[in-house]
Protein: FkbM family methyltransferase
Organism: Dyadobacter linearis
Amino acid sequence: MLKQIKNSTWGLLNKMGLGGSVQLFMGGALKQYGWFKSYHTKQSVDANGNPLPWYTYPFILFLKPRLKPEFTVFEYGSGNSTIWYAGQVRYITAVEHEAGWIKQIAPKLPANTTLLEKPLGDSYIKAVQSTGDLYQIVIVDGRNRVKCAIFASDFLTNDGVIILDNSERTWYTPAKEYLATKGFRRLDFIGMTPIVGIETCTSVFYRDGNCLGI
C-alpha cells in the first residue's frame, strides 16, 4: 500500500515537473507544509490536518506571526480560513452567498465568528458596512472582488490592511489601481497554495503604521 501511495504521488510530481526532487517528497517544504495531505483530502489544511487559509504558503508564513489577539477581521468568502483566523484574533465576520456551502461550514465555526448570508450584488459587497465596525484586516477572497476591495477600503481602522487573494489575475487590476490612489502600497507573495499544484499570488495592501508592521 505504501508503495502504491508513493507511486501515485510521484506521478503527480512528475506531471508538475517536480519528480526529480527526492528531498521534496521525503522531507521538503511541501511535506512540511502539509500540501500532500491537502491534495489528497481536497481541503486547505496543514500537515496535521488543521485548517489553513487557501493563500500562498509564503503569505501564510508571513501573516501568522503578525496576527494579534485583539484584531477584528472581515472576510469576503468563508471556509477553513475563517476557522484559522478565529483561533488567532478576537473576532471574525465573514459573508457568503451560497446557501449550500453555508450549511456545511457554519457548524464548524467557533463562537467568535459571525457568518452573514447575503445574495450576490450590493448587499454582498456592502456586508462589511452592516456590522458598524472597522477592521484591522479585510480579506477579499470571494465574489465581486474588485467592487468589494474598493468598498471595503473605507471600513478599515487607521492601521488596517486589505488582503487580496489570486491578485495576479488581470481583471483585478482596477482594484489594485484604486487602492494605490488611496495611498496603499502592495506586497506580493507568489507561490504554491494548498490543494492545487499551481503558482498564484496573495497580496497585502498597507499604509504607514499598519497593524502588520510592514
About this structure: Strands lie at 72-76, 91-96, 113-117, 135-140, 156-165, 185-192, 199-206. The first strand starts at residue 72 and ends at 76. Residues 1-10, 18-26 have pLDDT under 50 and may be disordered. The longest helix spans residues 2-15.
